[in-house]
Amino acid sequence: MARTEGDRCPGVLAVHQAADGGLARVRIPGGRLTAEQVDVLRLAAAELGDGRLELTSRGNLQIRGLRADGPRQLSDRLYAAGLLPSIAHERVRNILASPLSGLDQQSRYDVLPVAAALDRALCDRPALADLPGRFLFALDDGRGDLAELHADVAVRAVDERTALLSLGPRGARVGWSEVPELMLAAAEAFLDVRDQEWRIAEVAGGAERVLERLGLRADEALPTETTRVTAGRNGAAFVVTVPLGSLTQEQSAALAESGDEVRITPWRSVVVPVGAAGLEDVGLITSPDSVWEGVTACTGKPGCAKALADVRADAGRLVPGMRRDDRRVHWSGCERRCGKPSGVFVDVLAVGDGYLVDGKRV
Ligand code: SF4
To answer: Residue 5's pLDDT band (boundaries 50, 70, 90)?
Structure first.
């Protein structure tokens, strides 16, 4: 099946037409951005879109409200900034890496160089441009922070020499030097065995069939320990939460000024160097005790035509007065609950004349 048939995952050129204009999604493999790249994105949002940069649940960035000539101008700017190395692969560069990799004691192996090597090798393979836009690679530095994101092909560090490669709950022990090649071979095997499916888990016996083609046996149970990255100091880095994952111009500028490099996480937060100043002054959250920690929302009105409420505006007004909940909290504009977290969460659902919280009217 050709990649474009039915695959509506947005990219930079394949822009989604939302109720508030074009929506472009920029893939950030490994989540890593230089300060200059943050500024390129910030200016693009200001001059071509509605000014905001949205963080997605896969550690990518979105620009909304793009005008008609936006995609062309945006792709030129991203290409010049090194953010669009392959037009053909732009929507398939879905590579997550543990955002604190190499920065604290929990990191058993720095997976960011592996993520960069994987991205380069992916872009060098024309056939892999046919991957669905939802296909996901994940490189976990051993702490188990990416386990909940259920990547199609994942590796988790065991130590500096070995990793567990998995397509499901069990893994095969492999050496780090083989990891990029094996992950790409798994993606190629998926393209061979799939029919209309977007993910390996959707193919009957998909994981087993792909592993068989790789000549691997997943006979080791994956570790069950997981960790959650929260705002505040984490080893040699600082994590800031972005309320509702939507960066204003002021906040993007503050991140660009925070140091040479930032890392976008899949939890609507950003890793910045320790000592970065002025972040709270622009409304970024630097404490794990904030009521904003773990709060997410779908697009809602006016960006989504299906929305029954402007959930982001309502959350912005109501969350500061609410008690902090250790569970994640997700606000949805309709029952589709786009962007909801995996696992247990507090469900805040718009119903037209108010909200239900976990099914109860408030
Ligand atoms: S949950 Fe509903 S309102 Fe929110 S973005 Fe999805 S479709 Fe739109």
So the answer is: low
